[in-house]
Protein backbone atom coordinates (compact mmCIF):
# COMPACT_ATOMS: atom_id res chain seq x y z
CA UNK A 1 0.00 0.00 0.00
CA UNK A 2 1.23 3.49 -0.83
CA UNK A 3 0.23 6.66 1.00
CA UNK A 4 0.33 10.09 -0.66
CA UNK A 5 1.84 12.38 1.98
CA UNK A 6 0.80 16.00 1.36
CA UNK A 7 4.37 17.11 2.12
CA UNK A 8 6.60 14.31 0.77
CA UNK A 9 4.54 12.82 -2.05
CA UNK A 10 3.65 9.15 -2.53
CA UNK A 11 5.51 6.81 -0.16
CA UNK A 12 5.45 3.16 0.89
CA UNK A 13 3.35 2.48 3.99
CA UNK A 14 6.49 1.16 5.74
CA UNK A 15 7.49 4.79 6.33
CA UNK A 16 4.33 5.34 8.40
CA UNK A 17 3.02 4.16 11.76
CA UNK A 18 -0.67 3.40 12.15
CA UNK A 19 -2.36 4.80 15.26
CA UNK A 20 -6.00 3.87 14.73
CA UNK A 21 -9.39 5.43 14.32
CA UNK A 22 -9.29 9.20 13.77
CA UNK A 23 -12.80 9.79 15.15
CA UNK A 24 -12.52 9.46 18.95
CA UNK A 25 -12.12 12.70 20.85
CA UNK A 26 -10.65 12.60 24.32
CA UNK A 27 -13.10 13.66 27.03
CA UNK A 28 -12.02 16.41 29.41
CA UNK A 29 -10.17 14.41 32.05
CA UNK A 30 -11.24 16.62 34.96
CA UNK A 31 -14.91 16.79 34.01
CA UNK A 32 -15.42 13.42 32.29
CA UNK A 33 -17.47 10.61 33.74
CA UNK A 34 -15.64 7.29 34.26
CA UNK A 35 -17.88 5.66 31.65
CA UNK A 36 -16.91 8.29 29.04
CA UNK A 37 -13.19 7.68 29.68
CA UNK A 38 -13.75 3.91 29.52
CA UNK A 39 -15.50 4.24 26.15
CA UNK A 40 -12.75 6.52 24.80
CA UNK A 41 -9.94 4.16 25.81
CA UNK A 42 -11.46 0.74 25.09
CA UNK A 43 -14.32 0.92 22.59
CA UNK A 44 -13.50 1.01 18.89
CA UNK A 45 -15.47 0.24 15.75
CA UNK A 46 -14.11 -2.21 13.20
CA UNK A 47 -15.81 -1.02 10.02
CA UNK A 48 -15.82 -2.75 6.65
CA UNK A 49 -15.55 0.08 4.17
CA UNK A 50 -14.41 3.68 4.24
CA UNK A 51 -12.69 4.64 7.48
CA UNK A 52 -10.69 7.66 8.70
CA UNK A 53 -7.42 6.68 10.38
CA UNK A 54 -4.45 8.43 12.00
CA UNK A 55 -1.03 7.72 10.52
CA UNK A 56 2.36 9.17 11.52
CA UNK A 57 5.01 9.73 8.83
CA UNK A 58 7.99 8.89 11.05
CA UNK A 59 10.46 8.09 8.26
CA UNK A 60 9.63 11.29 6.40
CA UNK A 61 8.30 14.66 7.44
CA UNK A 62 7.17 13.45 10.90
CA UNK A 63 3.66 14.72 10.35
CA UNK A 64 0.41 13.25 11.66
CA UNK A 65 -2.04 12.53 8.85
CA UNK A 66 -5.71 11.58 8.61
CA UNK A 67 -6.00 8.91 5.92
CA UNK A 68 -9.41 7.96 4.53
CA UNK A 69 -9.08 4.32 3.46
CA UNK A 70 -11.43 1.54 2.39
CA UNK A 71 -10.61 -1.29 4.80
CA UNK A 72 -11.79 -3.93 2.31
CA UNK A 73 -9.62 -2.88 -0.64
CA UNK A 74 -7.00 -0.60 1.01
CA UNK A 75 -7.89 2.09 -1.54
CA UNK A 76 -6.98 5.50 -0.15
CA UNK A 77 -9.39 8.27 -1.15
CA UNK A 78 -7.98 11.18 0.87
CA UNK A 79 -4.96 12.18 2.96
CA UNK A 80 -5.03 15.37 5.04
CA UNK A 81 -2.74 16.84 7.69
CA UNK A 82 -4.26 15.97 11.08
CA UNK A 83 -3.78 19.57 12.20
CA UNK A 84 -6.06 20.80 9.39
CA UNK A 85 -8.70 18.20 10.25
CA UNK A 86 -8.61 19.15 13.94
CA UNK A 87 -8.94 22.86 13.14
CA UNK A 88 -11.95 22.22 10.91
CA UNK A 89 -13.88 20.51 13.73
CA UNK A 90 -16.33 22.54 15.73
CA UNK A 91 -16.41 22.10 19.53
CA UNK A 92 -18.36 18.97 20.47
CA UNK A 93 -18.34 17.56 16.93
CA UNK A 94 -17.05 14.06 16.11
CA UNK A 95 -14.73 13.40 13.16
From TrEMBL:
GO MF terms held by the record: sarcosine oxidase activity
Highest taxon of the lineage: Bacteria
Name used for this protein in its record: Sarcosine oxidase subunit delta
GO biological process terms, semicolon-separated: tetrahydrofolate metabolic process
UniProt source species: Methylobacterium planeticum
Amino acid sequence: MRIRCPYCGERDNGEFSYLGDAAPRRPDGLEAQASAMHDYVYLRDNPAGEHRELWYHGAGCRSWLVVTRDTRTHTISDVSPARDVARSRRPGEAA
